[in-house]
Amino acid sequence: MADRLSALDTSFLYVEQPATPLHVGGVAIFDRPRGGIDYDSVLALVGHRLGYLPRYRQRVLPVPGHLARPVWADDVDFDLNYHVRRSALPRPGSDEQLFDLVARLMARPLDRERPLWEIYFVEGLEGDRVALVTKTHQALVDGVGTVDLGQLILDTMPGGSEPAEDTWTPRTPPSRAQLVLDAVGEAVQRPGELVENARSAARDVVATAEKAADAVGGVASAVRTVLRPAPSGPLNAHVSGGRVFAGLRTGLDGYRKLRTRHECTVNDVVFAVLTGALREWLSSRGHHPGPSAAVRALVPLAVLDPDTAEFSPAGLVNNQVKPYLVDLPVGEPDPVVRLQHIAHTMAEYLGGERSVAARAMLKVGGFAPATMHSLAARAASSFSGRIFNVLVANSPGPQRPLYACSARMSAIYPVMPLVRDQALAIGVTSYDGSVYFGLNGDRKALHDVGALAAMIEEALEELKGTNW
C-alpha cells in the first residue's frame, strides 16, 4: 500500500510559496576541539544517524491529476553530499556575517525532487569555531514517526553513541501509472475523498490554509481566544523573497531570579521581555503604543494528551503542540505590570490544559527543541495571518553541554519560518545556562531586526530593575 502523506502534511506543500518556504531551521555553533571537526566527520555523523530516520531518504511523489494525496517514496538517487553541504565565511567571520549567511540560506526553498532537508557545515568563524545550519520541511517532521535531524546529531558525550545498524536499500518508486491505479483503488473504497482531492487542488492558497486548520482540529478549538482581526502595524506586511536574521544570547540565571521574585514561570519572563522589546521597537518605527495597545502573538505550547498520564519522551508520542493567541501588552509602560499581565493570561489559557513541564521535556534524547520548534511551526502554519502579528515559539533545552562528533556546542539559535503577511517569527530556547533568541524577518519589512534583538537585552535589564 502507498505510504501516503497525511492531509496536514499535504497542505503544507500546497500552501508553500517561493516567498514563504515552510522549512524550520537551526544555527548551532561549535568550538573546534583539538582533534578537529571537519566536513568529512560531519558527513559521516549524519550518514550514521540516518539509520534512525528513514523518512530523510525519501522524497515526495505527487499523484497525477491530484487524484490522491502525494506519497513518500525512497530516493533511489539519494546523495548525502547534496544534503550535507560545505560553506565558509571570510576569516575571521563574525556572528553577524554568519547570521547574514543564514538569512540567505533560509530564503531558498528546498528542492522537492529530493528529500526535504539540508545541512550546511560553515567554517571560518572567529575563535576557531564552526557552525551547522539545518533546514527541515514541516511536512517531514511530525514528532511521532520522524523527529528533526538537529535533535539526533547531538550527543551528551564527545564522540557520540554507536551508529544505528543501517542496511538501507532503496525500493523502486511507483510509476505514474501505479500512482494513478493506487489512487483509483482507494477512491473505490472512499469515493468522497477523490472528489475532495481534486477540489482541493483547484482551491486558492487561502482555502488550502483553511483545510490545514481543519486538519489540526479547527481554528475554533485550537486557538484559545476570540477570533478577531489582529491589531494592525508594521509586523503584518507583504513578505518578499528576502530574509534577515539576528541571534541573541542572554543568561538563564536572570530569568530564574525573576521567576522566583515574581512567582511566575521562566516562559512568562521570556514573553514579558519580548513585550518590552516590541514596545521599544514600535516606538522606534514611529508607532507609539497607546495604553491599551497590544501585539498578538501566536504561541504554540506543548500540552499533554487528555488520555495520557504523563509526558512521553519517546519521540514526543501522545503529546500535542497547540497554538494559543496571546495579546502582549506593549501599551503598558511598567515592565512588572507587563509581566503580571502575561503570567495571568498564560495561567488562564492553560487552566483547562496540562502543560508539559520543562523538566519532563528535558528527558527527551538529543536536542528536543529542534523537533519542538518544527512541531510549533506546523501548528502555526495552519492559521491565517490576519488573526496574529508575530509567531513566538519557546522550547526549553538541556542545561548540560552537547556535542557533535567531538565538538562542544557553544550556542544554538532557532529559525522559525515566515508565513503569508507575517514579517517576523521568533524562536526561543534555553541551553547550558543561556537563553537564545532567533529572529527571522522579512528583508524589506524588518530590515532593522538587529536593533530589535538588542532591544530584547535592554528589556531584560529593564525588568531586572535597579534593585537587582
From TrEMBL:
GO terms for cellular component: plasma membrane. SUPFAM superfamilies: CoA-dependent acyltransferases. The keyword DNA damage does not apply. One of its GO terms (molecular function) is diacylglycerol O-acyltransferase activity. Pathway: Glycerolipid metabolism; triacylglycerol biosynthesis; Lipid metabolism. It is an enzyme of class 2 (transferase). It holds the Pfam family WS_DGAT_C. It catalyses: an acyl-CoA + a 1,2-diacyl-sn-glycerol = a triacyl-sn-glycerol + CoA. Keywords: Acyltransferase, Glycerol metabolism, Lipid biosynthesis, Lipid metabolism, Transferase. GO terms for biological process: biological process involved in interaction with host; glycerol metabolic process; response to hypoxia; response to nitric oxide; triglyceride biosynthetic process. Its EC number is 2.3.1.20. Belongs to the long-chain O-acyltransferase family. NCBIfam families: acyl_WS_DGAT. This is Diacylglycerol O-acyltransferase. It comes from Prauserella muralis. The lineage of its organism: Bacteria, Bacillati, Actinomycetota, Actinomycetes, Pseudonocardiales.
